[in-house]
Amino acid sequence: MIFTYEESVNKYGSKFLLKKAVEREEIFQLEKGVYSDKKYASEEEIIASKYPKAIFTLDSAFYHYNLTDVIPEKHYLATDRNASKIPDKRVVQIFEYSEILTLGLTTYLSNGVEINIYNKERLLVELLRHKTKLPFDYYKEVLLNYREIISELDIRTIQDYVYAVPKSSMIMETLHLEVL
Predict the structure, then answer these.
(1) 4-26, pLDDT tens digit by residue?
(2) Where are the alpha helices (H) located in 100-154, listed in sequence order?
(3) Edge-to-edge strand order for the sheet containing 113-118?
(4) 85-125: pLDDT as tens digits
(5) Which of 30, 37, 128, 145 is deepest in the core (most CB within 10 A)?
(6) pTM of the model
(7) Which helix (H) or strand (E) holds 155?
(8) How is 60-111 classified by DSSP, letter by letter?
(9) Beta bridge mates, 107
(10) Residue 155: closest CA among 106, 128, 121
(11) Per DSSP, what are the bridge partners of residue 92?
């Protein structure tokens, strides 16, 4: 399980006792401000614990849902438009409107860390919204994988999401032409 610096200090009682626990390997410092009861943790877990309000999206989420076999080089996180810039070089930050940030938000547990991620319906909308920013082959691969699972998705929910985001008419047209 991953802990923040504050949680770790509270658990051990003081900064000094935390430092001693790290030396005794009762707890491990994975990076600045991130501690774990295991020696190793995935980068995804570390990112999720460092940025608990961020939501995994686009390439990161496509890979998680097996919509692509391309391992993302960076973690794609959606945050509020007014959020501070994430200074982590491992992260690509997508600034999203406050009204639609949590639309389609779901969570899953990864080794004791709760990961925020968009559901498949919202990700389809994100794929169509960011179509021009994605490499063509990558876009087509994800789109073809969506076509294979379209019967598992809630079409009404997808349409609701489309009408909630900017450029809804263009996205709806693309949805009907390329997916349905």
Answers:
(1) 899 999 999 999 999 999 999 99
(2) 120-129, 136-149
(3) 91-96, 75-80, 55-56, 113-118, 105-110
(4) 999 999 999 999 999 999 999 998 876 678 999 999 999 99
(5) 128
(6) 0.87
(7) helix 155-164
(8) HHHHHTTS--PPPSSEEEEEETTSPPP--TTEEEEEE-GGGTTTTEEEEEET
(9) 116
(10) 121
(11) 76
